[in-house]
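TASK: fixed-backbone design
INPUT:
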């Protein structure tokens, strides 16, 4: 799971791309990169990549050098051990290519350090006499797994094309907006909120290649990609995507649906399944558990909703963070309102438990900082995660997941230090999501919960195959 943004026909595009990347910083906090061209950078690719957060990577001095009216950008959340900072670029035969990739391929990529380099290599090997959209399809038609792509191409005459690709299963989100006579693209619609006059247009469809150049916007839908089973990642809605991002809905519903609305419905379903929860206060884990807790409270108002944990503006996501000093990270990430928590039986609401490390340390921190609590029940607005993800979430090993590592729900409860632990059922999750989006259950990928990987996708990577055989 990374964040990608792009634009063509946008004056001073680097500043706009930086703003968009900042608004989707939650999708990756390890590194960021950008490639721009066109306008005053005609005939050149201006590039910058570095480890760090968006505002640290793209300083005013850097932005001045990123000239042009077209470009792509990337926030990196590593899903492979040898990850590189994207976008990745190459010049061959007088042409230039640059690629930003969100997702993870399940092909055997033994000859490449990371899967994005395989994509770039394939693009550079295509026949330059053919139309660019057809060349892109030729380069990616045999790819398996998740790939939402932004591809910047410059031909020998210096003409630029921005291509936007979403795999035929639609694993990762991708959407578009219009702005100032040009077009913008991003992993989530919340990125467009960074630009006051940007107007959301729609989600990129699964199996669609949108390309923009001096001639305007065009659409190419490869025939062999049409009619494939969809496999949108359900975990995007549970945790990764921002609550103010638009959700893809059946038939692009007339009224927009937002991620936060889906999360609230998950919380309501959790309350319906657990009518006997007894606690003094209902406390969401910020920021990921807030909408779920709101939904729980809307359904069952017996327990007062209490913002007794707040988020420090300077902490990072601990799911993405490494294991070093996790307690210190939790203490820096959260502000504990001691007088609200003290001597209470607390119901903690969270979106999910993945490895269990963050929740265990959070409960330890609450007890350490507050001193006296009468008990803690943990309410999880999704089922236990039991199976690895190979499509863009870095949970490749089954044994690392809390449910498997500890040996079940009761053992997970003991290891995280809770007095009670309740999960939303699988059927409850699917019903809540499908009821809100109108999309049928079979068009989501919920393999991390069910172990049922999309049959339409081949898993050829030998390391991944070991986990499911």
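OUTPUT:
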């Amino acid at each position: 799971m990374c964040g990608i943004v792009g634009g063509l026909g946008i004056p001073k595009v680097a500043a706009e791309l930086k703003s968009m990347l900042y608004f989707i910083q939650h999708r990756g906090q390890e590194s960021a990169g950008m490639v721009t061209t066109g306008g005053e950078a005609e005939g050149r690719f201006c590039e910058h990549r570095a480890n760090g957060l968006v505002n640290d990577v793209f300083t005013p001095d850097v932005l001045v050098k990123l000239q042009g009216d077209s470009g792509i950008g990337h926030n990196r959340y590593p899903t492979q051990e040898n990850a590189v900072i994207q976008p990745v670029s190459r010049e061959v035969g007088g042409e230039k290519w640059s690629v930003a990739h969100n997702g993870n391929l399940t092909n055997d990529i033994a000859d490449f350090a990371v899967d994005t380099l395989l994509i770039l290599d394939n693009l550079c090997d295509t026949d330059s006499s053919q139309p660019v959209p057809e060349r892109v399809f030729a380069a990616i038609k045999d790819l398996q797994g998740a790939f939402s792509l932004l591809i910047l191409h410059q031909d020998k005459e210096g003409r630029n094309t921005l291509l936007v690709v979403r795999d035929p299963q639609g694993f990762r989100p991708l959407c578009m907006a219009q702005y100032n006579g040009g077009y913008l693209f991003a992993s989530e619609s919340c990125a467009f909120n960074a630009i006051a006059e940007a107007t959301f247009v729609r989600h990129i469809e699964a199996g669609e290649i949108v390309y923009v150049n001096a001639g305007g916007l065009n659409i190419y839908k490869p025939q062999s990609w049409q009619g494939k089973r969809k496999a949108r990642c359900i975990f995007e809605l549970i945790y990764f995507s921002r609550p103010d991002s638009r959700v893809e809905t059946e038939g692009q519903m007339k009224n927009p649906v937002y991620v936060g609305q889906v999360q609230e419905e998950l919380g309501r379903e959790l309350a319906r399944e657990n009518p006997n929860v007894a606690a003094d206060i209902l406390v969401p884990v910020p920021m990921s558990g807030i909408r779920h807790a709101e939904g729980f409270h809307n359904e069952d108002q017996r327990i007062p909703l209490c913002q007794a944990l707040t988020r420090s503006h300077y902490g990072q996501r601990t799911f993405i963070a490494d294991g070093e000093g996790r307690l210190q990270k939790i203490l820096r990430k959260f502000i504990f309102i001691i007088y609200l928590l003290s001597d209470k039986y607390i119901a903690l609401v969270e979106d999910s438990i993945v490895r269990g490390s963050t929740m265990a340390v959070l409960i330890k921190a609450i007890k350490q900082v507050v001193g006296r609590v009468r008990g803690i029940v943990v309410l999880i607005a999704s089922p236990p995660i039991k199976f690895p993800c190979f499509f863009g979430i870095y949970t490749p090993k089954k044994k690392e997941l809390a449910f498997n590592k500890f040996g079940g729900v009761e053992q997970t409860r003991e290891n995280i230090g809770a007095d009670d632990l309740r999960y939303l059922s699988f059927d409850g999750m699917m019903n809540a999501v499908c009821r809100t989006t109108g999309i049928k259950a079979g068009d989501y990928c919920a393999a991390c919960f069910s172990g049922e990987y999309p049959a339409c996708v081949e898993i050829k990577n030998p390391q991944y195959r070991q986990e499911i055989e």
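COMMENT: The radius of gyration is 22 Å.
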